[in-house]
Design brief:
Layout: H1 24-48, H2 56-81, H3 90-118, H4 136-158, H5 163-167, H6 169-198, H7 211-229
Helix pairs in contact: 1-2, 2-3, 2-6, 2-7, 3-4, 4-6, 6-7
The structure holds protoporphyrin IX containing FE.
Protoporphyrin IX containing FE is lined by residues 62-63, 66-67, 69-70, 73, 108, 111-112, 115-116, 119, 124, 142, 145-146, 148-149, 152, 186, 189-190, 193-194, 210-212, 215.
Length: 235
Amino acid sequence: MSAPGHQGSGKGAAGDPAPRLIQPFTSRWFVFLFGVPLTYAVVRYHLIKGVEWSHLPLYIANKAISLAAVVFIACSYLIGRTLRVYADDPGRRLVLIKFCGLIGFSLAAIHAFMSLLLFSPEYYPKFFLENGKMNLVGELGMAFGVLSLWCLSITAITSLPFMYDAVGADRWSRGQRMGYLCLALAAGHVLVMGLSGWLAPAGWPGGLPPISMLAFFAAALPILVKLLWGNTKRS
Ligand code: HEM
C-alpha cells in the first residue's frame, strides 16, 4: 500500500508530519476511480437490466464499491511498481500510492459489511441450497472473501506510520506483499462467485461483461506485472 521500497516512518524530513492523503489531486483520482465503477453498475443494472432504483443504496452500490475496492488496491501496486504516474514528483506519487491502498481497504471493508447485510437467498439465490444453507459456490466464495479482507487488513496495519520503525524493513515488506495475496484471493472470490455468469455472454445486459469479471482482471493485472517484471521495475 505504500510504495515498494518506501523507507521510513511516514514522516517527512526533520520530523515534519506525513503529507495529507486527502488533497485536491487525490480527490480527483477518487472521483474518477469510484465514478467509473458506479456509472458502470448503474448503467448495467438499472438502465439496461431494469433493476428497481430502490436497490441502488445497498445492492447495486455494493457492486460498484467492491469493484472500486479492487481497482484502488490494484492501482496502488501498479503505480508503485510500473505506471509512470507523477514520475517527476516522488512525494506526490507516494501520497497517491498510500491513498489508493487505504481507500481500497476501506471500500473492501464497506463491501464486506454491505454484503453481510444483504446475504440471503432472496438477493443471492445462486449461493444457496433449497434448504436455506449455502451451497459450495457460496461457501467457497465467502471463504475467499473473508481471507482476502484479512490479508488486506495486515497490509493496512503495516502501512501505519510507526510500523516501519516498529517491525523493521523485512517484516514491513512482507506485510506489504500480503496485498498481492489479498488480490489473488479476491480474484478467487470473484471467479468462484461469478464464473457461471462469465460463461453465458448471451445473458450479459447490453453485452456489458459482469462486474466480477472486470474485477478479476483488475486483481490479476498487478500479480501478472509482478510475476513478469519481478523486482526490476520498482519505483
Ligand atoms: C468478509 C469479506 C467479504 C464478503 C462477506 C464478501 C461478499 C461478497 C458477496 C456476497 C458478493 C456477491 C455480490 C453480488 O453478486 O452482488 C461479492 C462479490 C464481490 N466481492 Fe466480495 N466479499 C468480501 C470480501 C471482498 C474483498 C476483500 C474484495 C476485494 C478486495 C471483494 C470484492 C468483490 C467483488 C469485486 C465482487 C463482485 C461484485 C459483483 O459481481 O457484482 N470482496 N462479495
